Amino acid sequence: MRRTVLPVLAVVLAILALWYVAAIPMNIREVLTEAERAGAEVWGGTAPERQDRSAWALVVRNPDLAPAGWSQERPRLPAPHQVVRELYASTIGEEVFGRRGFVQTGEFSNRSLIYHAGVTLGATLVGFLIGAAAGVLLAVGIVHNRAMDMSVMPWAVISQTIPIVALAPMIIVVLNSMGVQGLLPKAIISAYLSFFPVVVGMVKGLRAPDQMQLDLMHTWSASGGETLRKLRLPASVPYLFASLKIAIAASLVGTIVGELPVQRGGLGARMLAGSYYGQTAQIWAALFMAAILAALLVWLMGWLERRTLRAMGVPA
Amino acid sequence: QDAVTLQLKWVTQAQFAGYYVALDQGFYEEENLDVTILPGGPDIAPTQVIAGGGADVVVEWMPAALAAREQGVPLVNVAQPFQGSGMQLTCWADTGITAPEDLKNRTLGVWFFGNEYPFLSWMSQLGIATDGKDEDGVEVLKQGFNVDPLLQRQADCISTMTYNEYNQVLEAGVTPEELVNFKYEEQGVATLEDGLYVLEENLQDPAFVDKMARFVRASMKGWQWAEGNPEEAAQIVLDNDETGAQTIEHQVSMMTEVSKLIGESTGELDPAAYERTVATLMAGGSDPVITAAPEGAWTHAVTDAALAQ
Amino acid sequence: MANAASLSQTAAPVIDARGVNLVFETADGPVQALKDVSLSVTKGEFVSFIGPSGCGKTTFLRCVAALETPTSGALTVNGMIPDQARRARAYGYVFQAAGLYPWRTIAGNIRLPLEIMGFPRAEQDARVDRVLKLVDLAGFGRKYPWQLSGGMQQRASIARALAFDADILLMDEPFGALDEIVRDRLNEELLSLWARTQKTTLFVTHSIPEAVYLSTKIVVMSPRPGRITDIIDSPLPRERPLDIRESPEFLAVAHRVREGLRAGHVEV
Amino acid sequence: MANAASLSQTAAPVIDARGVNLVFETADGPVQALKDVSLSVTKGEFVSFIGPSGCGKTTFLRCVAALETPTSGALTVNGMIPDQARRARAYGYVFQAAGLYPWRTIAGNIRLPLEIMGFPRAEQDARVDRVLKLVDLAGFGRKYPWQLSGGMQQRASIARALAFDADILLMDEPFGALDEIVRDRLNEELLSLWARTQKTTLFVTHSIPEAVYLSTKIVVMSPRPGRITDIIDSPLPRERPLDIRESPEFLAVAHRVREGLRAGHVEV
Amino acid sequence: MTLVLLAVLLWIGAWALNGWLTRGTRHRVRAVRMAVPLIFGVTVLLVWELVVRGLGVPTAILPAPSRIGATFGANLPLLWGDFVQTILKGALSGLAIGVAAALVTAVLVDRFDVLRRGLLPVGSFMAALPIVGTAPILVMWFGFGWESKAAVVVLMVFFPMLVNTVAGLQDTTGMQRDLMRTYGAGYWPTLVKLRIPAALPFVFNGLKIASTLAMIGAIVAEFFGSPTQGIGFRISASNGQLALDMVWAAILVGALAGSAVYGIISLVERWVTFWHPSQRT
Ligand SMILES: Nc1ncnc2c1ncn2[C@@H]1O[C@H](COP(=O)(O)OP(=O)(O)OP(=O)(O)O)[C@@H](O)[C@H]1O
Ligand SMILES: Nc1ncnc2c1ncn2[C@@H]1O[C@H](COP(=O)(O)OP(=O)(O)OP(=O)(O)O)[C@@H](O)[C@H]1O
Ligand SMILES: Cc1ncc(C[n+]2csc(CCO)c2C)c(N)n1
Ligand SMILES: [Mg+2]
Ligand SMILES: [Mg+2]
Fold first, then answer.
1. Residues A281 and A207 in one domain
2. Whole-prediction pTM
3. In this complex, is the C-beta atom of E136 within 8 Å of any C-beta atom belonging to chain D?
4. ipTM of this complex prediction, to 2 decimal places
5. Which end of chain E is more exposed for a tag (fewer CB within 10 A), N or C?
């Protein structure tokens, strides 16, 4: 325990320190412009002239003004405490004290990241299930049918070079025109991103049994279905979970991408709204929320993996 | 009740207050309409949505609508709530830009995704090339969603709407004196914004025309209500915003500016303004937005029916 | 083929190979894995195959089990072609590694072929119990493979091959991965098992003492192309204590095997 | 430690172990891998270690090579502690698998220790050539490991261990993965190699004939806890044709080893 | 409708053909190995064409492949410019920087165990930050040019590359390491002569993942601000103009570039890690 906690803490502290230091030069120009508007004397000439000077020079020559970079309204790089404050305000703060918060209304407020994380989570899980199921089915097909293996596999690789993210708005419009609305279009994009790792992992996993194990099945004249159920599927479980962990993270990205164009809630919509109104702290808070969600989902997969493997008698 | 799906051009904000108010205040219901409002967003093209059958009527800018018409999506303007144009180019005054000619050799932020047409027409009328920074050309950036390029001085000028981005610049602490605005209207290159468009073939159906008439009537009622009650309208918009990211202050100020653009509008398209828009779009030099004057791109049939009552 | 089948009917050998050839087409050209292999095995025999790596021992066993098909020649098992015999579940196959499925208990592993062959549940249980006792693993049924030593795992895999009472036991270097002392033990046990069940057994090994100790017939093979160089009928009695390995008869047979091997051996 | 070192100075054994103990702390509690192991090896001896799996053969070799550190007891190599000897590059270690790096040619693999030890380039080439000839692999230097048979790979790994002329050759079941015939060949070659180079050799094996055939001294070990149960000085002459394995002296030693093994062996 | 029916028949026919081609030992023939995926791809395109025509799908929704091809051919100079902007400047420079940084970090992480235990968990958390969120921030920091695209790519490829390389550096057997120890080899010889060669297959694995990510990352970042050139810009701007044929032509550029880079990496892998079992078939 201590062997991991201490190094992680050290790294986190180092990152925080770096972050605080970086926030000063990152925000210095805007800080100086504001100070100038407020009538302060600023080193470095006019705003356009300052544009050509190095940020560090501006920091060093305006030492009293520089620390304001930690408390700006619209920072280029918000200081960690600003992000944390926003994260708190848009979760617990909003739900407990907000006008539309959970405590007041019994429903999660649409101004809170908890609500939006929920929206995203729903579509992610649906998309993940679709993607994982499609991936497993495709892998079974590929393993059992050489024609499918040879024809589909190269195209599956190429399909991943298509910037689906760029296509997301189009896909949503097209699906919309076919009457598919709400959670499903997002889930489909999410499924598209998650099926590939599952296919790759499952094909590997279903092919994991060695010739000897397959020959055994053959000497018992087991059918293809029996070999699949009693040998290939159990043998593929570790591979399956390894790819599910990648897939669920990809799923989340897919959902967020699907939420960008349609401003109907979810962390993606939230990030964009933050960006749209220049609310840097809001983007960062949504971003961290997404990362936390991803970490939770991956952890969940790991937990399921451990449970499954234990149930299968594999030593812990 | 008749179902109507309305696709907006952009995210839920006071720019579309009239429709939300009509929905919220039951004006649509009074007209026996069941209206669904689909918010837009970046990279959602209302023209594409309606072409695919995802909406009955869309809020769109006329340049994009006419361009789509040439692309084979026969859109027809049935109503024009916005009489004025809110588009402008906002520049830092300290860059020394005072007149359109000063734009040469500068970096400008422009919205694309079908919103670039007015800008391109304007530049071609000024004889300024848009493919690079030089003596008689400008460098064009595909502006993102916000006003950061200006604040960070990555661009000398950016596109803003009087009712939205311009306010955002001010909200960021910039004083109006620090800025120079080129309103498209004042430059004589204004194009009609935020009209209501439907597919031409649907207008053959009298029932559809009637439905649209009721829709436009209720929507205009909503706009009037919104103009009269900007604070409440802003709150209604806020309540309909599923992202929960809007602030009441910003929406109220947006409502105030939008009111100016709507003015005394009845929703009826002013044919003169239409002709002006078409002229601007066709004047685009070697690469005009539309190549031929469109036929039947607007109708008063719906507004006539709406105003008849 | 019909001819071979009718012949085997009269002489009733369990396995009858006549001029079996098998050529693998590989990227580097054809490999003659078996050349003109003829062999007849009668019921209840214990036949060992010995020979250097690549001489076709495994390939021959796989042909018998219908896991490969000879390029030419006649091969019958119980008077049928091997694939029919496979469908009739005539084989219990034991590989070099135990090859137990790690996600099944020992009992579960032994039950697997029974499940596939559709034995009723009660019958499955009974058979699993019986073969577990047979290989001296009673009480270990609920353990997982990794909880057992290598020798125990190998015995479990033999139990698995015995569970469905196949006529023929095919063993491809079943004890190759085990150390000498464990191997001695298992050899002893295998011999007594064979004495009790009287199953026809084909056994591949690299070890001369093992081959001589276990077999009623020793087939010496030689590679490139894989062929039979000697077939030795063992003069040893059926009853064989471990000490027999230091007897002169034993050493004589071992010597003949070694000579046969050395003759066929070309390059390391 | 100082005491042990001074002692070895006088008697000059190459390897001197006195009451070596090694306990591994594992998740399931401590495992006594070596208990009270005492052994003295003089220059030029060929010592085989035999015993069932887990008796500590590998562990003892690793202690000698300073890959493990004994928990207690005194162990010196050339009068130094093993780690000093390691830094002085006193060991050539040959593992069970050839362990050649697949991205290097045979010559490149043999050159590897020479590069690390900073031999000049010309010297490297000369040595590589010499040891390739020594193990009968001249002409194979530019092949990659996977293009060679298992036996050839194993010879290459022996060549690699010989290339830098270490005082002591440590071999941990170097032929365990090979078939009996190849093994016989390599045993013969190893013996002649040893006769020519007179390197002190510690050799781990599972095979009784191998141990008896090769060694001047056979150490029989027994597991749980790992300890030495018998040390047999071989009465066989240094000159040993393969046939010696059928001689009465050989069989007598083999019998003694087998008895020693059986005594120490508890459960399969 | 007949066209749609034709599409269905075509699909069944092609499937049967591929089934026939892959039966028995025919699939070992080189020409067959090439033909089968090609037949599949061509079939998909033909079915697409027939369905679009048969159902009269508007071009504003989905253009036919023939039209996409025509647009692609007619706009080669324009698309070449986009390719240079997005792939050569944005994606490849970002890929190079990200990969180099990851390799150096991997060696450090491998050397200092504390770093491994501290950095990898934190790193995996950072890697979970979705790029659609970080891209607007990076555009704000690094401007509208290719530099911000490269920055997005660096962020995207760094962690997968790091994880793979670290795994690779540790993928040596105890025996291989012990061998080095018996030679008295120190850290650097062991790194150079053992760990790095052993890590190469993993490094290439990571490179393959990273290269596809790089293409996608560079394109996506252009959605959040770009000059008036680039694949992402083209997709977005053309989509707004309902020029869907141009959108797909730009996507084609991206897919071609991605596949080409992937192919090149696979070739180099085959050449450099020729010794690895997976490359020896
Ligand atoms: N599937 C295959 N494809 C091509 N060649 C094969 C195949 N299986 C075996 N061979 C070749 O056929 C020959 C005989 O192989 P086989 O496995 O029967 O030998 P073996 O006597 O069992 O050897 P070992 O003692 O190493 O197990 C060898 O040269 C081998 O390389
Ligand atoms: N690194 C280790 N950690 C814990 N226990 C170990 C370790 N290495 C060896 N052991 C244990 O020490 C004992 C002796 O192991 P060792 O490898 O020396 O046996 P061996 O005689 O070489 O056996 P084999 O013939 O199987 O190679 C065994 O019980 C083994 O499980
Ligand atoms: C990516 C993107 N950026 C800007 C616009 C332009 N736009 C259309 S309506 C509107 C409302 C004013 O706030 C704005 C800004 C767009 N459509 N898409
Ligand atoms: Mg074999
Ligand atoms: Mg060992």
1. yes
2. 0.87
3. no
4. 0.85
5. C
